[in-house]
Amino acid sequence: MLGEVEAAAEAYRDAMSAVDEAKAAVKHALGEVPPARDHLHAAIVAAYRAGARVRALAPASGYGREQVRRILRKAGIDPD
């Protein structure tokens, strides 16, 4: 009887440990988002300046056309 309780308690501790590890992984990943987003925005601006069109940049970036336009406007560019 106690063996089952101990096994269940160990399974619970293992599950909670997995949750803690997942939280740490999420925290780490969230820290990587801002620089990755900045890099993507810079790449969009550079590609537009090199002749790429908003219509092509949107699907390549994963953003919609209006979001690409917002990024370009923020960089001081009046998009097509």
SSE diagram, text form:
Blueprint: H1 2-49, H2 54-61, H3 65-74
Helix pairs in contact: 2-3
* Assembly state: single chain
> What's the overall average pLDDT, rounded?
96
Uncertain runs are none
Record field, number of beta strands: 0
Q: What level of helicity do the residues show?
A: over 70%
Radius of gyration: 23 Å
Sheet bearing the most strands, described?
Answer: none
Q: In percent, how much strand structure appears in the residues?
A: under 5%
Your description of this structure?
- The protein is mainly α.
- The protein has one domain.
- Helices cover 82% and strands 0% of the residues.
- The chain has 3 helices and no strands.
- α2 crosses α3 (65-74).
- The longest helix has 48 residues, at 2-49.
- The chain is rod-shaped, with a radius of gyration of 23 Å.
- The chain starts with a helix and ends in a 6-residue tail after the last helix.
Short note summarizing the structure:
This protein is 82% helix and 0% strand. With 80 residues, it is mainly α. The termini are far apart.
Name the descriptors.
rod-shaped; 80 residues; 3 helices
